[in-house]
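so ive been stuck on this for like two days lol. basically i have the seq below and the ligand is flavin mononucleotide, smiles is in there too. i just want the complex predicted, nothing fancy, no docking runs or whatever. if the output looks off dont worry ill sanity check it later, just need somthing to start from for the group meeting slides
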Amino acid sequence: MKIEFAPLQGYTEDAYRRIHNKFVGGVDAYYTPFIRLEHGGLRSKDLRDIRPEFNEGVNVIPQIIANGGKEFQTVLDAIREFGYSRVDINMGCPFPLQTRHGRGAGLMQAIDRVKEICDIVRATSDVQFSAKMRLGLDFHDEWRNVLPILNGTPLVHVAIHPRVASQQYKGEVDMEAFSSILQDSVNPIMYNGEIHSVEDIKRIENMYPNLAGVMIGRGLLARPSLAREYVDGQEWDEDKRNTLLRTMHMAFLEHLQGIIPNEMQLLSKVRCFWEYMEPEIGKKPYKKIMKAGNMKNYLKAIAEL
Ligand SMILES: Cc1cc2nc3c(=O)[nH]c(=O)nc-3n(C[C@H](O)[C@H](O)[C@H](O)COP(=O)(O)O)c2cc1C
């Protein structure tokens, strides 16, 4: 079963992906945070994120968020210039800033727009596509309108996060709906949502033997060795995990020091590394890291880990 690193805006950018891939890996692919149009072009930070020189040796799949065929084609053309032959379609972003413009999960109530995008997918023979979607924008059965269109479109897979947009990233995942999608989909299905341990991966694998794989987001940010532990069939002890965190963190800090001269800006960015790690490092160390007001105290908190 494949394991892929889900896209997480603000976290899984090029440096984090490179560092994860170099020091631990274990995942089959990394998705970029969504790439979108702004004032008719791509944002410079999105362009940087997909530049081949920043992604060398890493299996990276750019993800597009678009409200229909026109936006989709423009972003796709820009991405193709960098030589990518795999692209992911975002049909799941829950943030109103995107959904009210018909992007992300907003697409799930705009069937004609989904059709436009799928027409482009079918007409683009030099790129393979996957999609990542929710159950719906407001209702748990909106996927029923979208799936027939996806079924008529050859996709590498469809990754399902079985929540609706209003739940954002909290609340129950609807496994019953997920099972129905798995049954009704012509394209391979990946599962995404609340995987935090090797046991969680194995449970999903046992429940759905014909799954294409799992996509993991916050669980991998919290425990970067999770996929490696699953692939190698061996859990890492605390010491080994702690060493990995320190190594990855130092590499991340060194990278950021080279591009962010301002100490407070640097601190706020590098701190993101620990954001989801409270269960992994413990409440007290976590609080110390999050509350450190300057670089000296921050590094002291990390040295005490
Ligand atoms: C901070 C944050 C940023 C995210 N950014 C993206 C994104 O750019 N594209 C996307 O498809 N999903 C995005 N997601 C959703 C994740 O890819 C994933 O579907 C979600 O976190 C559920 O999986 P998990 O429980 O394994 O984290 C984001 C989620 C979070 C919490």
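The chain has 15 helices and eleven strands. The first strand starts at residue 2 and ends at 5.
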